[in-house]
Design a protein that fits this description.
Blueprint (H helix, E strand, L loop, with lengths): L13 E5 L4 H9 L4 E5 L9 H11 L3 E4 L8 H4 L1 H22 L2 E7 L25 H16 L3 E6 L2 E2 L11 H10 L4 E4 L3 E2 L2 E2 H14 L6 E5 L6 E2 H11 L6 E4 L1 H4 L14 H5 L9 H11 L4
Parallel strand pairs: 1-2, 1-3, 3-4, 4-5, 5-10, 6-9, 7-12
Antiparallel strand pairs: 8-11
Helix pairs in contact: 1-7, 2-4, 4-5
EC number: 1.1.1.133
Keywords: NADP, Oxidoreductase
Protein name: dTDP-4-dehydrorhamnose reductase
Length: about 300
């Protein structure tokens, strides 16, 4: 490990970005572009090859490792949990060990799906101190990954977020929720969307900005910590879809359905709004803007498809 005075905040110079082809990574390339930025996509590093992770990170000699890589096919993970655990848990642990060996801070992204949302009031939001209780193989694998990161990384920050969508889209999901809704709208509807799950849709550009500010300021937080970072406010997937259509000037028949009617293989939290209070209180960073404003910004940036 590189020798460093533990009482002195290190200057971030070289950043290694993992999962570099994802929609969040696309925005992080922009917000972290003033650093010496090295990127690795799946083609550069197979995270299921645990033996390859340590040498690959060591060769880059990073000051910070930012891990956006994840297996996020929530329903498919129910059929093939080993695939989810390979990337979300075991690879996360190997990345944590390698980051420690390199003397690097690890920034690792997790999910609202570590909570079940049961018994949460409509106006409540989960804090970092609330007890996780994931309901799906995906959520369990991500929570196990959090534990691996915090156990094996000498310095780490786990950032939980919710409902990500970005201009680049997510290759594995064939887009994102916004693009899925617009694609269904183009078919004429009606569009049926779950109305009994509450969350906070989060624009990856805003999450990337907050992440960059965290690295730039190195706030007075314990660097084996968890922070929630989402856009502000809350909604249901149904009302999110309604806002997408209204902001796009589309009149689309929209039908609310229940989680039970939707019948997805994986159980989702009925309420997974995350509190940004700790981000402001301890990190001194203003929470991202309201999700409605972020959505309109996204719609103004998306290329013609």
């Amino acid at each position: 490990m590189k020798p460093r005075d533990p009482h002195q905040q290190p200057a971030t110079k070289r950043v290694l970005l993992l999962g570099a082809n994802g929609q969040l990574a696309a925005d992080l390339r922009r917000t972290l572009g003033h650093y010496e930025l090295v990127t690795m996509a799946r083609e550069d590093l197979d995270l299921t090859d645990l033996a390859a992770i340590g040498p690959a990170i060591e060769r880059q000699s990073p000051d910070v490792v930012v891990n956006t890589a994840a297996y996020n096919l929530v329903d498919k993970a129910e059929e093939d949990p080993l695939a989810a655990f390979a990337v979300n848990t075991h690879a996360a642990g190997a990345i944590a060990r390698a980051s420690t060996a390199a003397g690097a801070l690890l920034v690792h992204f997790s999910t609202d799906y570590v909570f079940d949302g049961q018994g949460a009031a409509v106006d409540a939001a989960f804090s970092e101190e609330d007890l996780p209780s994931p309901q799906s193989q995906y959520g369990i694998s991500k929570l196990a990954g959090e534990y691996q990161v915090r156990a094996y990384a000498a310095e780490c920050l786990v950032i939980r977020t919710c409902g990500l969508y970005g201009v680049k889209g997510s290759r594995g999901k064939g887009g994102n929720f916004v693009e899925t809704m617009l694609r269904l709208a183009a078919k004429g509807g009606p569009v049926r969307v779950v109305a009994d799950q509450r969350c906070t849709p989060t624009f990856t550009a805003d999450l990337a900005e907050a992440t960059a500010r965290l690295l730039a300021t190195r706030p007075d937080v314990h660097w084996k910590d968890i922070l929630h970072v989402t856009n502000a406010g809350r909604t249901t997937w149904h009302d999110f879809a309604k806002e997408i259509f209204e902001a796009s000037g589309l009149e689309v028949p929209l039908e609310p359905i229940s989680t039970e009617e939707f019948g997805a293989p994986a159980r989702r939290p009925v309420h997974s709004v995350l509190s940004n209070e700790k981000l402001a209180r301890l990190a001194g960073i203003a929470p991202p803007r309201d999700w409605r404003d972020a959505l309109r910004d996204y719609l103004s940036q998306r290329p013609n498809r």
